[in-house]
Amino acid sequence: MSTVVDTVKTIVDPILATHHFELADIEFVKEGGSWFLRVYIDKPGGITLNECVLVSEALSEQLDAMDPDPIPQAYFLEVSSPGAERPLKREQDYQAAMGEYIHISLFQKQDGKKVFEGFLKALDETTLTLEVKDKARRKTLTFDRAGIANARLAIEF
User: Fold this and answer.
1) Would you say 100 and 120 are in contact if contact means Cβ atoms under 8 Å apart?
2) Which residues of 49-74 are buried (b: 16+ CB within 10 A; e: fewer)?
3) Whether the Cβ atoms of residue 131 and residue 109 lie closer than 8 Å to each other
4) pLDDT for position 2
5) How far is residue 119's CA from residue 100's CA, in Å, rounded to a whole number?
6) What DSSP line would sit under 55-75, residue for residue?
7) What pLDDT is stored for residue 7 in this prediction?
8) How far apart are CA 37 and CA 8, in angstroms?
């Protein structure tokens, strides 16, 4: 399915550039028998509903005009903000999250756990360092970036 994502990215990038928006993520997934093409966009200060509609209409028009159809099966197009708990996928996402509270899931357990939340304190090419709460105290943990299954911003409770 990456070819669908790659194709959509080449189409949506110029649309976003025209309006000074950024692409946060694209996913093409099957849920409950239906296919969904989700495009997450953002800009400094946040994206509005009208801006999502603008991108959705422009993208839909360009996809419909393509021959052959890059997405032959029926699907639902959704264009939205990545939300408060936006995924961290690109290097610039991680850089922008420095000092922020994040959630990470690991492929394999570390210290007996696969899920951690804390403040992103340091980042380099191979490691990521979080300051996490451990009961009443805080401690610093370092993770191998290759071992991180997914990461996103989180809301601290």
Assistant:
1) yes
2) eebbebbbebbeeebeeeeeeebeee
3) no
4) 57
5) 5
6) HHHHHHHHHHH-SS-S--S-E
7) 93
8) 9
* Residue ranges making up the domain that contains 45: 2-80
Q: How many residues are listed for the chain in this entry?
A: 157
Q: At which residue do the structure tokens 């451990």 appear? A: 134
Specify the 3-state DSSP secondary structure of 89.
coil
> Pick from 87, 92, 90: which is nearest to 154 by CA?
87
Check residue 1 and give its pLDDT. Answer: 47
Q: Are residues 57 and 118 in the same domain?
A: no
Mean pLDDT by 10 residues, the chain (157 residues): 85 96 93 95 92 97 91 94 88 92 95 94 95 89 95 90
In this prediction, residue 134 carries a pLDDT of 82
Same domain, 63 and 130: no
Contact 25, 87 (CB under 8 A): yes
Helix (H) / strand (E) containing 144: strand 137-144
Q: Is residue 35 part of a domain?
A: yes
The C-alpha angle 138, 141, 144, rounded to 5 degrees, equals 160
67 found inside a domain: yes
User: CB–CB of 55/96 below 8 Å?
Assistant: no
